[in-house]
Amino acid sequence: MKKTLLATTALAFVAAHASAVDVQLYGQVNKGLFAYDDGANTDVIVTDNALSSTRFGFKGAQALDNGLTASVLFEGEMVSNASDALVQQAGGAGTDNTPANSGENGAFNERQARVGLSGNFGGVYLGHQSTAIDGVITQDLAGAQDVMSADYRRIGGGLEFTNSSTHALVAGATTNSLTSDIGQSRADSIRYDSPIFNGFQARASIAQGGDTEGSVFYDGAMGDFKIKGAAGMRVVNSSDTNTAIGGTGEVQDEYGASLSVAHSSGLAGTLAYTANDRDGGEDGSGWYAKVGYAWDAFEVAADYGNSEKFAGTAGKVNAYGLAAQYNLGHGVSVAGLYRNLDGDDLAVNTDSIDMYGVNMRVKF
């Protein structure tokens, strides 16, 4: 028994010190306490912030003898009550709506798992990973990013709007169904990233199922201004028919872009755009604007977003919000958010949804 234990310990020691790749552990826990009023009921929910989920991962890279660099990334997440998946459960006579669990119970899920080779030509990556369009609408320097983003559906996007007259839930009428889904994009895919040239980088990917994407990212500065931006397109070759609230047709192409500029004074602004083309049904489009100011460890911001016809038929959502964030240092930040989501041009008149709450993120 002792010999077996010693042998096992020795093998583990050798394996740990014989690794060809230097590996780094990282992660975060990101939780929020939010209240909402959907016009029929108010409630409080403890949620995992879907703008940047609770996660941990291992990443590493190793230079090879032939001038290439091999890399590995494994990232998992444990999501409990994701802030974009919560939906109300209809009460008696539609007047006592309460939040239903999102169905995510904290089980471990694969978020990214990929390998790669890079060199003077750029990099090629294979596995479950961010695709080329991931992040194109969320390039942002305007502050309070823990709770405020062009991808505003990530907090409260699953909540259904309620009928103004009867207070009943309007099935399928959510911010998620009325906005673009390209804010975050991960899939089993192969992706190419070009070398960075004067702040510009091109990316291209093909996902299992056939969806093809291309994008360009920029990160640079001009005088007292810092600038970030991106633009991308997805050609959809997998079926994507949306009939949740009466939509028709399949999405053929999806587009997204964002541009953010920050001045050394602390003032910053962000603009973003999303759109899709449908084969049948109506094309969707959306705009987003944000202004912010940062000083010392504090950040404040206000935003407005408008999206319409992403369900392939009539249907709009307007969103505006106010946010503040305090960065305590060492990867710890706290933030507060007020968000109003207002559905419009639906089959019935609906009440808006008010959300307000606090959030804390701890990175390691």
Give the SSE layout.
Layout: H1 2-17, E1 22-37, E2 42-48, E3 55-63, E4 69-80, E5 87-89, E6 98-100, E7 105-119, E8 122-130, E9 160-162, E10 169-174, E11 186-193, E12 200-207, E13 212-222, E14 225-235, E15 250-263, E16 267-279, E17 285-295, E18 298-308, E19 316-329, E20 332-344, E21 353-363
Antiparallel strand pairs: 1-2, 1-3, 1-21, 3-4, 4-7, 5-6, 7-8, 8-11, 9-10, 11-12, 12-13, 13-14, 14-15, 15-16, 16-17, 17-18, 18-19, 19-20, 20-21
In short:
The chain has one helix and 21 strands.
The portion of residues assigned to helices is under 10%
What is the approximate shape? globular
Mean pLDDT: 89
Q: What integer value in Å does the Rg equal?
A: 22 Å
Whole-number tally of structural domains: 1
CATH class bucket: Mainly Beta
Major pleated sheet:
16 strands, antiparallel, barrel
Beta content: over 45%
Q: Please name the fourth-level CATH homologous superfamily.
A: Porin
Q: Structural class, from secondary structure content?
A: mainly beta
CATH hierarchy: architecture: Beta Barrel
